[in-house]
Amino acid sequence: MLPSAWNSSTAASIILGYQGDHTAFGVAVMKGVNSPRVKLLYDIYHMQIMEGDVIRTIQDNIQWIGHFHTGGVPGRHEIDASQELNYHAIARAIADLGYAGYVAHGIHTNARRSLCFAGRCVPDLLRMTTIVP
């Protein structure tokens, strides 16, 4: 039996090669799997593009999320003041939920700029996560 979140749009997405492009779909799959060993990778960049309302969606579904990816919107660049998402507010909301999992940032553009970003912004994100050696 397929999760209740499946519909013709979901079927079209799978045919085109896109799966789990909305949080509700991923949560329905997690509920169907019903295992504490299977969690969602919540890509904040893509979820802002696909559905928006990132903080509320995270708050409503934190129990299903095992890993976060970050990226600036637009352009999937570093998360700095030129981007539309307020990552300080997002990080604060995630930390307030008691999240102790992983947060990762993809380096897609200028490596030097990305490393400078990491020195300034990533420590804020790391304070809320558990680092596993």
Count of individual domains: 2
- Specify the overall morphology: globular
Could you spell the SSE succession in H and E letters? HHEHHEHEHH
Largest sheet: spatial strand order? 1-2-3
Radius of gyration: 16 Å
Structure report:
The protein has about 130 residues and is mainly alpha-helical. It folds into 2 domains: about 1-30, no CATH class; about 40-125, no CATH class. Helix content is about 45%, strand content about 10%. The chain is built from 7 helices and 3 strands; from the N terminus they run H-H-E-H-H-E-H-E-H-H. The chain has helices at about 10-15, 25-35, 45-50, 55-60, 85-95, 110-120, 120-125; strands at about 40-45, 65-70, 100-105. The chain has a 3-stranded parallel beta sheet. The longest helix is centred in the N-terminal third of the chain and has 11 residues, at about 25-35.
Keywords:
single chain; 133 residues; mainly alpha; 2 domains; 3-stranded parallel beta sheet; 7 helices; 3 strands; globular; disordered C terminus
Could you give a short description of this structure?
By secondary structure, the protein is mostly helical. The chain contains seven helices and three strands.
Question: Helix and strand layout, with pairings?
Answer:
Layout lengths: L7 H8 L7 H11 L6 E4 H7 L3 H8 L3 E6 L16 H10 L5 E4 L5 H10 L1 H5 L7
Parallel strand pairs: 1-2, 2-3
